Amino acid sequence: MPLNRFPFLPRLALAAVALASLAACASFSGIEPVAQPRDAASLGLSFADPVKSGAEANIAADWWLGFGDGQLNQLIDQALATSPNLRLAQARLARAQAGADLVDSADKPRLDAAVDITHQRYTENGLYPAPLAGSIRDAGTVQLNGSWELDFFGKNRAALDAALGSVQAAQADAQAARILLASQVARSYFQLMRIQEQLGVAQRTLAQRSETLDLVRDRVNAGLDTRLELRQSEGGLPEARQQIEALQEQSALARHALSALVGQPHVADALVPPALSTVKIAAPITSSTQIPADLLGRRADIAAARWRVEAATRDTASAKAQFYPNINLIGFVGLSSIGLGQLANAGSLQWGVGPALRLPIFDAGRLRANLRGKTADLDAAVESYNASVLDAVRDVADQLASSQSIARQQAEQQQAESAAEGAYEIAVQRYRAGLGTYLNVLTAETNVLQQRRQRVDLAARALDTQVALIRALGGGYAPTAPASLAAAPAAAPKSVAVN
Question: Coiled coil where (predicted)?
């Protein structure tokens, strides 16, 4: 197509050069971000070969299946299907996607249709001569208007990248809500299991203290004990009943919390949790000292924070691009006439096409203020990312330390329980042989019951810490990191040694 069909193009190019030379009148110099993402050295992280360290880096998205409990699987599936919090996160994602579509439309041609019909009196002292001046006429216009903003300086592209970054952050937030909900359901379920087993131990404690009281009464009647021992034994019963009542209250509250998490009232009221010993523990980490750093990068909250940094970076670039000329191609074609009877005539045709250029020269600091705000948002996003990484490192280290400590405590508790049960067996044998009293048997059983309570607590803590560790390591989430932060410590596919 010959250029003489568009004689304005050379003038447009010349005007663009002239306007660009005036850009210094509205300058963004001196406005730069100051926050920087934390690197591995500043976090005190060291890297090791995950094969040599023995770290297992794979956590399935449906990690709860590894516990081998059908009731737990059903509860989590119901929660993920009906939770209002997940639906809220999905609504925010849909809102972010709609915002990205809106920003994307700014970079595309636009075509509008307009129909105007006016019944008016024309002034006698204006531009229009007689006989139009002073007359009352009908006027009509039917027209198509088109425009296309030429994004020479990348303002629209940067705005679209920022919107897409917000979409990615919203997607990560939705996954974070999913992982958090699943972990809360699992932890509440294991808490209910702990309460139920502790309730069984408390009921046996009540029965044991009742038997002890009967024996002490008999000994008092026989003159072998005093009223001091009797009053002490009587005080043990209300204490045991109070413990049972407290555990029943905890059970009711735990069931209410579990039903609320699942999103179905009373769903947990009739739930009969199995014994803690029937639940499998599949540890995601086999090393005692190494944490796989790529799992830190799979945390959805860190992924969301990284994408918010990316979005804020693009927002800042878009704000800088507003200092440059804004160039549009505009055009129109249609019919216009005074007198509606002439509107459809060929002579009523009108059209036009040409460029429109705008350059901010003096705007009382509006553009600089906008850029300072966007730069502050970027600094805030970077510091939020840093805080998320620090919290992730601490969270994983805490859960791993607790998991290792609980394992050692369980080993010691098993030995203590074995010793208590051995003493109880000896007391039973002595009683059967007539060498001891039944009161000795009940006293020995007291130590056994105490060890059982500790065993239940430690078993429940082991499961709870396991869920917390899985969540801390990302819960199976595998994000795509933005290129600008691909080298961040939380995204490095290596292993982190926790000191």
Answer: 230-257
Q: Which of 51, 111, 43, 3 is nearest to 389 (CA)?
A: 43
Q: Does domain 110-150+326-358 have CATH number 2.20.200.10?
A: yes
What is the Cα–Cα distance from 224 to 441, expressed in whole angstroms?
A: 17
The superfamily (CATH) of domain 37-107+154-324+368-497 is Outer membrane efflux proteins (OEP) (1.20.1600.10)
Distance (Å, rounded) from C-alpha 385 to C-alpha 392? 10
**Two tokens, residue 214:** 């009967």
Reading the block at residue 44, the tokens are 């005190």
Which segments of the chain belong to CATH 2.20.200.10?
Answer: 110-150+326-358
> Cβ(208)–Cβ(439) under 8 Å?
no
Task: Give me 212's structure tokens.
Answer: 């002890």
Q: Give span(s): CATH 1.20.1600.10, the chain.
A: 37-107+154-324+368-497
pTM for the structure as a whole: 0.76
Q: Give the helix/strand (H/E) hosting 354.
A: strand 349-358
Task: Tell me the pLDDT tens digit for each residue of 11-48.
Answer: 555 555 555 554 445 577 778 888 788 766 666 555 54
Look at residues 229, 167, 232, 48 and name the one whose alpha carbon lies nearest to residue 482.
167
Helix axes 70-82, 227-262, angle to 10 degrees: 50
